[in-house]
């Protein structure tokens, strides 16, 4: 069932748990996430990153996402992840995405506010919810080829001001995670920063860079103020690991293994995040 993120995230915030936001890159991964959500009777934020429009087009992603969402009875949010240009975001909304992220986190504060406000205005008029990022979650060694890799921690003052100025529906914050693989083991997160922001900001908070962060860290985040956790790299890693284990003899068997790896990983994270 296709929904926007409003109720899903408000319920999570109220219930003290997080909803997983796995990135899909093809029909198989989208199906693996939606079928797992359906099996466990839990919501899912089915995400497609603008950076992956080189793998499948936005049109293809919209068709796959809408189709899979209507195939299952649980709430599915079709979310544009890391939208960096406004024309692309508006196109995603026109194509049926029910939630979008405007990521202007590497811009100065005023530009981030201005771009986010423009997206919020356009999206809210069409019943689409908006996530933005303040501070910046950088990247490790990863699959996404980000140019910017320096994380900037979010402060409670700018988070509060940003939400007031933009009317955004959820806010991605930077508390020590990075996108992709961590070279030096799992990161140390600043839970003090998370608590400070949680106490100041009224909207649900989002954590990016979930992969490799460690189950104990993620469980704490979900319990202590994060309502949505983005994960991508771990799904690719688990697909490859399952292929290594199964040693498929042909391409069709390989797809079965890869899907199984992704489904197991999502099931695992539903448990860690205690998603209801
Ligand atoms: P990871 O690949 O580190 O899990 O990050 C995913 C993400 O934050 C997508 O927005």
Would you summarize the structure shown here?
With 276 residues, the protein is α/β, with parallel strands linked by helices.
Features:
binds 1,3-dihydroxyacetonephosphate; alpha/beta; 10 helices; 276 residues; nine-stranded parallel sheet; 48% helix
Distance between the termini: 16 Å
- Computed CA radius of gyration, to the nearest angstrom: 17 Å
Order of helices and strands: EHEHEHEHEHEHEHEHEHH
Mean pLDDT: 95
Report the bound ligands by name, code or SMILES. Answer: 1,3-dihydroxyacetonephosphate
Count of DSSP strands: 9
Shape: globular
Determine the number of helices (DSSP H or I, runs of at least 4 residues). 10
Catalogue the unreliable spans.
142-148
Strand content: 15-25%
- Percent of residues in helices comes to 40-55%
Q: What kind of sheet is the major sheet? A: 9 strands, parallel
Estimated structural class: alpha/beta
Structure write-up:
Helix content is 48%, strand content 16%. It contains 10 helices and 9 strands. The chain has helices at 5-15, 27-40, 58-71, 86-95, 109-124, 156-166, 191-200, 215-223, 233-246, 251-273, and strands at residues 2-3, 19-22, 44-49, 76-83, 99-102, 129-134, 170-173, 205-207, 226-231. Helix 6 (156-166) packs parallel to helix 7 (191-200). It is globular, with a radius of gyration of 17 Å. Mean pLDDT is 95; it is low at 142-148. 1,3-dihydroxyacetonephosphate binds at residues 23, 81-82, 179-180, 208-211, 230-234.
SSE layout:
Layout: E1 2-3, H1 5-15, E2 19-22, H2 27-40, E3 44-49, H3 58-71, E4 76-83, H4 86-95, E5 99-102, H5 109-124, E6 129-134, H6 156-166, E7 170-173, H7 191-200, E8 205-207, H8 215-223, E9 226-231, H9 233-246, H10 251-273
Parallel strand pairs: 1-4, 2-9, 3-4, 4-5, 5-6, 6-7, 7-8, 8-9
Helix pairs in contact: 2-3, 2-10, 4-5, 5-6, 6-7, 9-10
The structure holds 1,3-dihydroxyacetonephosphate.
